[in-house]
Design a protein that fits this description.
Layout (H helix, E strand, L loop, with lengths): L1 H9 L3 H4 L3 H13 L9 E2 L4 E3 L2 E3 L4 E2 L3 H5 L43 H18 E4 L13 E2 L5 E2 L6 E4 L5
Antiparallel strand pairs: 1-4, 2-3, 5-8, 6-7
Bound molecules: protoporphyrin IX containing FE.
The site of protoporphyrin IX containing FE has 16 residues, from helix 5.
Length: 172
């Protein structure tokens, strides 16, 4: 019985996540600034089209830079600042309807695993935050962290993140 209680305290479930609005805002902000796939799959126009006053000829290969869109001053106030609060009072989501935030792409070629991918990230991050107190190593300040990324099909940090995890629950 005691072990069961301990497990309940330690494990989050998907139903807990539905109430974690700030966690979801943090994840949106991470996806905005650091989309795992910075450039979407290439598209090709099937016929000549006009977009925003530009004529796109037939068979033009198009690359969409989701990373740059997430940092555009036209779409975002203070785009280089990490500020999850920007998602707390609006309905902007990453499911492909709001073109200023497209970490999973948009349209018919968008990521087919959007529900699985986002649920996995939410559950993993929630469990990590719930189970540990996180600190930077002694003497390291947040401003010291090098947030530069390697560009590629998928994007990751150049320098690995070094943090100290202190378990909150006994037995972890
Ligand atoms: C956080 C996790 C993930 C992110 C951010 C992500 C992002 C993306 C993006 C940006 C695209 C291109 C969409 C476009 O060009 O419009 C894509 C395509 C795709 N993703 Fe994901 N993805 C994730 C997880 C996954 C997972 C877990 C799977 C498989 C289990 C998956 C399978 C695919 C496939 C098969 C495509 C190609 C779809 C096509 O060719 O039409 N993704 N994903």
């Amino acid at each position: 019985m005691r072990n069961d209680l301990q497990r309940v305290r330690c494990q989050l479930t998907e139903s807990d996540i539905t109430q974690m609005n700030y966690l979801k805002a943090v994840i949106k902000e991470i996806f905005r600034l650091h989309p795992p796939a910075p450039v979407l799959l290439p598209r090709e126009s099937m016929e000549e089209v006009s977009v925003g006053g530009y004529t796109i000829p037939e068979k033009t290969r198009i690359y969409i830079n989701a990373w740059a869109i997430g940092r555009s001053q036209e779409s975002w106030k203070d785009p280089d600042i990490f500020d999850p609060e920007r998602f707390m009072d609006n309905e902007i989501d990453f499911r492909g309807k709001d073109f200023e935030l497209i970490p999973f792409g948009a349209g018919r070629r968008s990521c087919p695993a959007i529900a699985f991918g986002s649920a996995t990230v939410e559950l993993a991050l929630a469990q990590l935050v719930h189970s540990f107190d996180w600190e930077l190593p002694l003497g390291v300040q947040p401003a010291d962290l090098d947030m530069s990324e390697v560009f590629g099909i998928t994007m990751h940090r150049i320098s690995p993140l070094m943090v100290v995890a202190k378990p909150i629950f006994k037995g972890i």
